[in-house]
Amino acid sequence: MRDLVAAEWRKIWTGRAWWALGLSAALLCVLADAGYLTQALDQLPKGTTTEADLTSTLVQGWFMVELVAALATMLAVTREFSTGAICRTALLGGGRGRVLTAKLVAAAGTGVVYALAAGAAAAASPWLFLAGRAWHPQWTMTTTWTLLGVMLVILVGALWGSLLGIVIRQQVVAIVVLLLSTWLVSEGLLRLAPKIGRFTIDEAMAAVYRSGNDGVLPIPWALVVLAAWIAVAGVAGRTLFLRRDLP
Amino acid sequence: MTDVVDIEGLTKRYGEVTAVEDVSFQVRPGRVVGLLGRNGAGKTTTLRMLLGLARPTAGRATVFGHPYAQLPRAAHRVGVGMDGIGPSNAATGRGDLNIWARTLGLGRSRVEQVLERVGLADDAHRKLRGFSTGMRQRHALATALLADPELLILDEPANGLDPDGIRWLRRFLRSLADEGRTVLLSSHLLAEVEQTADDIVILQRTLRYSGTVADLTRNGTVSLESSFFELVGPAAKEPSHA
């Protein structure tokens, strides 16, 4: 099993996708933090926000790495389906069940790498963005929980991306589903039908990284919802991967 | 002696379309067996069902007495080169083989051995995207040979090869059989299979022939081509030529 996981790991980290996505994510997060900072620099003198709030917000801005972690693991899986390499993986991997487990372990490991990198960048960002300014970072317990929340959703995102890839198989369709569900469906549902919208995986993630969105679930319930989404996707992925013909 | 491959009443339907119907044949150890048929005759589908990549609608297929998924150390006993199975995400030939070797728990030295054997050692640093068709076929063979398998299942291994490549492949397959390995290869290159195979299986959705080349060609008095067309019948539509 160790060799199989190592091979899956190598597949994810071979090629340009992982660093291209990582670089894009870093750029997006820096841009988002720069926007938060500009807003906060207006609000701080008026007292409508505090240094502690700004510190947490700058840390929270790195939640976007979740999308990148999901895309990286999703691309690794769907690329195999599109090239037919998944057949060789199944033939050499000692059974589809083992292959699925190895893929999920490698996806989780990828999530951990992205989470650690994003966590380090997020923790450093208040000091970097406020360097040379009159305001100073104030790290609070809320900031710590925000950071942990950001890191957790990145890990969940990596698993979610891999499972969506296994269920959907088609690369373009999988990416469209991920992006639409993240940017349109969850937000839209939260606004139009908040009682339903807050149970989407993206809004549950938003609750965990303390997005401040109105109507999201309390964090313990959000964690349960995240676990439920991963469990449902895991069952669906396993059932389809074990039963459906491979391309 | 147990048959290496045993296929019994294998059928595959995709909705209304029947790709393979009630096919039965066996492959004996140490033989080179050619699986012949027109395009769309069901050769690849049969091999995919044998390997557990596609689920049969009816019937059963076993390798060394077990369905592939239940065969102990299946990946080490059966080497596969299938049309449509692409490389991993690795950029180079050597990188791709290293990934598959790792999957099998093999070291890099084995990768160098198979590269040497298929004549790709000097080109393995090149990007897979830049490989010629012949190099791709050799690369697929190298992947199939990684685990030093007893049975090789090759789907259209001669496709796209030039005359030199075809001659190389013929000798290569013969050398594998001389080592005691069993080779099951699908092809629609009749003359090629006639020179390479000991046994022939002809499919045209249903089984049309399973036996030795000698019996089919009446010890060389009729060509494999005539026998083939006699068994599969005329094409549904004659191809047009410019």
Automatic annotation (TrEMBL), chain A:
What PANTHER family does the record point to? INTEGRAL MEMBRANE PROTEIN-RELATED (PTHR37305), MEMBRANE PROTEIN (PTHR37305:SF1)
Q: Which residues cross the membrane?
A: 58-78, 99-124, 144-165, 172-190, 219-241
**Top-rank taxon, per record:** Bacteria
For this UniProt record, give its keywords in alphabetical order, as a comma-separated list: Membrane, Transmembrane, Transmembrane helix
Protein name per the record: Uncharacterized protein
Automatic annotation (TrEMBL), chain B:
* Record InterPro entries: AAA+_ATPase, ABC_transporter-like_ATP-bd, P-loop_NTPase
The protein in question is named ATP-binding cassette domain-containing protein
Tell me the ranges covered by the ABC transporter domain, including all copies.
5-230
SMART domains linked to this entry: AAA (SM00382)
Which keywords does this Swiss-Prot/TrEMBL entry list?
ATP-binding, Nucleotide-binding, Transport
| Keyword Cytoplasm listed | no
Residue ranges of the TM segments: none
**Its family?**
Belongs to the ABC transporter superfamily.
